[in-house]
Amino acid sequence: MDMIVAREIVTVLAFLGFLGIVWWAYGGRRKSRFEEAALAPFDDEERARIRRETEQARRKERGK
Q1: Where do the TM regions start and end (predicted)?
Q2: Phi, psi of 52 (to 5 degrees)
Q3: Is 24 in contact with 30 (CB distance < 8 Å)?
Q4: What confidence tens digit (pLDDT) does each residue in 23-43 have?
Q5: Residue 30: predicted pLDDT
Q6: Residue 34: how many CA atoms within 13 Å on its side-chain side?
Q7: Residue 35, CB half-sphere, CA atoms under 13 Å: how many?
Q8: pTM score of the predicted model
Q9: What are the φ/ψ torsions at residue 26 (nearest 5 degrees)?
Q10: Inter-residue contact 36 to 43 (CB < 8 Å)
């Protein structure tokens, strides 16, 4: 295998990895999670505490 071919293969694999990351990041299932995370720095502590408690309650319900 020639060194040029090996470099081409690595380039193609890196590009496919990049496309996979973009697909994962912009997928519809994660949109609400990312929007919430984007607003996290602007939340006050009380809202954050309530959200954590709600999330813990949901996890307990799912575990049943």
Answers
A1: 6-26
A2: -65, -45
A3: yes
A4: 988 887 888 788 888 877 777
A5: 82
A6: 8
A7: 6
A8: 0.51
A9: -105, 10
A10: no
